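Hey all, sorry for the wall of text incoming. These are the two entities for the joint prediction.
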Amino acid sequence: MTFQGFQRPSGVSGIRNHVAIVSVMESCNTVVRGICGAVYGTVPITMPFMRGQLGQDLETTMATLAGMAKNANVFGVLVVGLEPVTSETLAAKITPSGKPVEVVTIQGSGGTIDATASGTRLAARLVRQASALSRESCPLSDLIVGLECGGSDTTSGLASNPSIGHAADRVVAAGGAVVISETSEFLGAEHIFAKRAVTPEIGEKFLDAVLGHERAIMAEGVDLRGANPTKDNIRGGLTTIEEKSLGAIAKAGSTPLVGVLSYGEAPTGPGLYFMATPAPAVESLTALSAGGSQLNLFSTGVGNPIGAMISTTIKLTGNRNTAESFSDHIDCDVSGILERGESISEAGDRLYDYLVRVAGGELTSSEILGVRDTAVSRFGLSM
Amino acid sequence: MPRAIVLNSSDNVATLIDPGAAGDRLTIQGEAQPETILQSDIPYGHKCATRPIGEGEQIFKYGEIVGQATCPIAAGEHVHVHNVDSLRARGDLGADS
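and here's what came out:
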């Protein structure tokens, strides 16, 4: 079972051939965007809050940026930094992948204009090299698929998430990996999911992540009801986090849970994994792509358009109203499950066939419209 | 007659997949439930009680607990944030709840 993809020196294949322009800190974002505006085939990795981190946050940010750069969807990387030390530190985390890595710094260039000029020339050369590659037959078992939901409503649990679950089972059957995340969206369903762990230790590790998160929320005196479900979830009919979680878990299909990953960590083999991440879509997609996901299946109920920068996002809905009103952003309509008696496995098979075509180059709406962003989560103090 | 889905026989709510008006009788898909007449308009995607639910009683959907009634709920009544509370991550109730 194969798809037409790009083979990488690391041995894992990608579904896209990006040249990633990666900002090391927020002062470099303008230069990154300038280079991406000048050079076809580039994607920017920028965010606020990159310079002031301490301890675990600093490690997580560097590892996540490196993970996105090492993602098999990326041909080559230009690191754009302010000063050489952190820039070279990040570049050194990426070069073991075997892909070309260049570095430009604003201080080294003497300002943003010259950094943009140097960076544009370096990026242009990388894009020329990338364009010499052709798609080749690659094993579907190379795929790591992120399982995501956002802007959920009650149709998510009834139609779109179960469709994702069926497609996820097919990816696992083909030898690939699938990763579900968003820790708080297991509250109310964690006891069901833990039973699917292949070993008691993995089940315990999963429960620790979810219940530990709940305890942390409680210790702050925070009432989750104000935040999750969100206002649009509530408008769509979701009443409690328990109801949302029981619907969300359907994305994971039916295969056993083989591993628990930390934020941005890569799966170690085929099967279903859980990754501990915050629930907002951009944060969890960022972590999933840092862990190597080339592709995400993203269900929405009331309408969430967002995708990720490095990994490709397929947006689906089971809500007939959203399929129509939000059609600009919907790649796969599974409302037939609720409206026309389509079975979940029929819809899931359609979704899987589309996934294979997207892997082979068919573009999705978030790619075409550029509705993509990056956010590395922060968990601690700033300096 | 608005359609509504019930996935598990122990559920006491149905999820509407058509908008419903007061007085409509639900066409239940999935597990059989008592005849349910809507007590008020209920939007697409929202839930209604398929049997009376007492104050403090648990709400069941997917055969699992999804919350607790904060007041008595009559059969056919809209079930949502105005009469149901979550039981999880309730830091407002104190750290040892």
